[in-house]
Structures are given as structure tokens and as C-alpha cells.
């Protein structure tokens, strides 16, 4: 009887460690890419639109670069009764954003400046020379519109202009290589289908 009682009142074996629940792995969010950061940038931070227009956009939940790119501009402008001037500014800023997205070394403000001197695409920039483009920028900076724009946009050095052109040429070459490889793939597929007949 004593042994039976001792069995039930015996202290638990201290050598067996209690089991611990395994900690759940920590979920870490992936770092944002440069493109994502650009898309999330606020329209106000670009310093390219009149403050009144920025406030109007923000009042309708349009606060980021992504919002502007996804906006049906024609429909929204009609609903808001936007002036032709404001519509033109929004279209130009959107074009500048897209160019800067294509050429990562460029800020939308830089692209906006290039569009002002009729370089509206990476192809236009790629076909230019640093000195010629720099001279055109200097002439524009002396105009009344250019002086107004230079209050918001830093005038670039010739080295910076050269960087834009190199990036535009690389972009053009990359697109050409992609289109050629796509054409070769299509040709190979066609030849295979013919030989299979």
C-alpha cells in the first residue's frame, strides 16, 4: 500500500524538460523596389503642379504618382471642369513621370525640363549630344518660362546631361535587342511549324 501511495505522490522526473511551443517564423516584408518608391511618391513632392491643383487632386484621393498614372484624365477633367491649362500641365507631368520611369537616372523634374525643350521621349534624348542638349537648356533657362521653371528645378550640369543621354541610349539598345530576340523567336517557331507539316 505504501508503494502504491508513493507512486502517485512521487515528484515528477526533473530530467525531462517540458516541451516548448515552437516560435512562429517572423514574417518580414520584402523591401520596396526603386520603382515602387517612385510610384508611391506624393504629387506634392514633385513640385511640378500648382498648389491649388495638387489640393484639388488630394481632395479626391489622388495623392501619389501611381494615382495620377492610373487616372482617366479626360473623364476626371470633364467632371471637375478643369481648365485647358491644368489639363495640359497634368498631361505633361504624366509624360515626365513615364520618361523618368524609363530612365532611372532621371527625376520627373528633369524629364519635365527636357519636355519643355521638345525632348518628349527617351528616343529624342538618345539621338542628341551632350553639348547640343546643354546649349538648348541654357537658351531655355534665359526665357521667361525657363526662368519661372528654374525656381523649382535645379539647372543640370553638362555631366548630368551626358548621364541622361547615356541612359537613353542604353534604354534604346535594350528595346532593340528585345525586339530582335522576339523576332528571331517568332521566326524559329514558324520554321518549326512548317517542318512539322
From TrEMBL:
<dbReference type="InterPro" id="IPR025567">
    <property type="entry name" value="DUF4332"/>
</dbReference>
<dbReference type="Pfam" id="PF14229">
    <property type="entry name" value="DUF4332"/>
</dbReference>
<feature type="region of interest" description="Disordered">
    <location>
        <begin position="175"/>
        <end position="197"/>
    </location>
</feature>
<protein>
    <recommendedName>
        <fullName>DUF4332 domain-containing protein</fullName>
    </recommendedName>
</protein>
<feature type="domain" description="DUF4332">
    <location>
        <begin position="55"/>
        <end position="170"/>
    </location>
</feature>
<feature type="region of interest" description="Disordered">
    <location>
        <begin position="17"/>
        <end position="36"/>
    </location>
</feature>
Amino acid at each position: 500500500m505504501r508503494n502504491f501511495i508513493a507512486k502517485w505522490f512521487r515528484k515528477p522526473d526533473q530530467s525531462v524538460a517540458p516541451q516548448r511551443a515552437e516560435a512562429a517564423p517572423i514574417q518580414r516584408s520584402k523591401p520596396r523596389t526603386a520603382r515602387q518608391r517612385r510610384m508611391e511618391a506624393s504629387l506634392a513632392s514633385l513640385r511640378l503642379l500648382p498648389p491649388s491643383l495638387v489640393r484639388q487632386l488630394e481632395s479626391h484621393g489622388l495623392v501619389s504618382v501611381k494615382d495620377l498614372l492610373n487616372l482617366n484624365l479626360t473623364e476626371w477633367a470633364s467632371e471637375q471642369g478643369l481648365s485647358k491649362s491644368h489639363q495640359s500641365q497634368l498631361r505633361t507631368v504624366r509624360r515626365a513621370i513615364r520618361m523618368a520611369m524609363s530612365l532611372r537616372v532621371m527625376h520627373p523634374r528633369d524629364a519635365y525640363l527636357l519636355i519643355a525643350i521638345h525632348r518628349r521621349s527617351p528616343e529624342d534624348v538618345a539621338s542628341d549630344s551632350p553639348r547640343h542638349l546643354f546649349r538648348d537648356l541654357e537658351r531655355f533657362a534665359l526665357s521667361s518660362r525657363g526662368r519661372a521653371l528654374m525656381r523649382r528645378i535645379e539647372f543640370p550640369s553638362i555631366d548630368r546631361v551626358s548621364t541622361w543621354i547615356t541612359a537613353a541610349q542604353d534604354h534604346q539598345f535594350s528595346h532593340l535587342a528585345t525586339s530582335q530576340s522576339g523576332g528571331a523567336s517568332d521566326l524559329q517557331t514558324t520554321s518549326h511549324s512548317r517542318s512539322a507539316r
